[in-house]
Design a protein that fits this description.
single chain; 5-stranded mixed beta sheet
Amino acid sequence: MASVQGIIFAAILILRRQMIKITLPDGAIKEVANESSPLNIAKSISEGLARNVISAKFNDTTVEATTPLTKDGSLTLYTWNNDEGKKAFWHSTSHVVAQALEELYPGIKLTIGPAIDNGFYYDVDLENETISEKDFPQIEKRALEIAREKHEFKMREVSKSDALEYYKKQNNSYKVELIENLEDGDITFCDHSSFTDLCRGGHIPNTGIIKAIKILSVAGAYWRGDEKNKQLTRVYGISFPKQKELTAYLELLEEAKKRDHRKLGKELELFTFSQKVGQGLPLWLPKGAALRERLEDFLKKAQKKAGYEMVVTPHIGQKELYVTSGHYAKYGEDSFQPIHTPKDDEEFLLKPMNCPHHCEIYNTSPFSYKDLPKRYAEFGTVYRYEQSGELHGLTRVRGFTQDDAHIFCTPDQLNDEFKNVIDLTLYVLGSLGFENFTAQVSVRDLDKPEKYIGDAANWEKAEQAIIDAAEEKGLNFVVESGEAAFYGPKLDFMVKDALGRNWQLGTIQVDYNLPERFDLTYKGSDNELHRPVMIHRAPFGSMERFVALLLEHTGGNFPLWLIPKQAILLPVSEKHEKYAEKVLNSLENHEIRALIDNRNETVGKKIREAELKKIPFMLIVGENEEKAETISVRRHGGEDFGSISISKFSDLVSKEINSTLKSF
């Protein structure tokens, strides 16, 4: 009997040794058999969950849903409804599309095919072949045929020598170059069907989950983003687990085309570009300049109430300034190259950042703790040499103006100052209709300390200060590793626009490093010198990018307080122009911005053109209005207010402005 019990006990011990403990996001711990996959674990929770799981994260590493787990750890399961799930879905589709491209264009060379925010791309060297829009249907057709065959994605480790030999046989110098920069033990291939690709992982279980594929566009892209390298063909695409989701997405794309800020900017006469001036250097037209000035005045007014002082700094600075700040070491190669003066060894740079200049302003006079905080604000224009292929309207330019400010405070003041900046940022976003957002605390990547300056202790203090402030303000926030600036962590506001797209608008950063590098000090209550803490903030981010996103978010229908012209007067005939002038003067006295369309055209045509220009109110004046001293008011979009007095119209405008533009 004892021997039987011993055998049973031994069997239990063996079984226990074969079990692993998996911690789920809610803190629950599941004991499962060794080598269970995330998919197995999902099935143990519910069959419904298992049907939807397409990827997973185990101990902070992305794994396949079918990866055997062999040790204790934390597991997060991803479905199509998670960003990480979409990333795995789209990356897997890029493999399928790459296979289709290889079959349709024999001899092409594959390079890389990552997932992006909306879909994926694959860069290929087509040699002498070309891909145009007419080729998209056959690429989609073949890719879908492969997907329907339900091939499993299988990862396998490959030695460096075998990986190099494989791609040398294919004469693929791009993959060879990638492998040469990897180490043995870090190289994996992904197989599905008869297709093999160099890949780090992150795939869905099988191709059959992909039900809809659309090739969206092709573009040129330099290998590794270097203009000195060969230009490749970048094939953009997107995919979905249901056809109806692709249909909805394509409808959204059509709406996005209508709202494209480049199209609207031209139609509304806001900005333009000139090849003679230079790529990525926007020219603001009178209406755009008026819009931008109004945005600046709006923020200046709020900043004044919050205790900011305006400063102005030059567009250039000595190279040494940016060497001291660390910007030259980090971004020097990507900036405009130094300007050499007639004086030997004298070099200047176009200003890439405002913060070094503001540090020098702080350094002009001694401060005590009683003088702090100091809040310097500037609409400062900076310059970055973006590659020509990455330039895109106002969202990616080479010269842009930041609504920049830097706060120098004591460590004890940091929490309150940071929360005050959060309040200001929320006021700005709310007044412009950006209500749907998530706050993102962007911290260091602890595995890549070389990306950052300063000591770890200061970084920990700065990161904790941001998290504390975000919690105290009740923000809905996430923490993202590796997204910090090189000199400090930050709080980014990720805003969802009217089309459901996410944009980063508004940023606040805590910085212990630049005060150290510029030797900034203040005298404390102990009569000793101390380092201030520096907060960088820009609620708009840049005027150019903000206007672009505001254009696309509103479709050009700006908030009434912001739009350059709030109303247009439409005289029925020439004999009513004198009354129109009288009304215009009265509107100006009521601080309503208006103009008169006195062209010899019909009122109907004038209304149609005013609609296209997105002017909020059309004020029609004819014989009846002149006799009654009223105006006939029509709203953009067709709403008719009838004939009302100028004072009643003024009240209507004021009420709408006050409903969106609250006092700070």
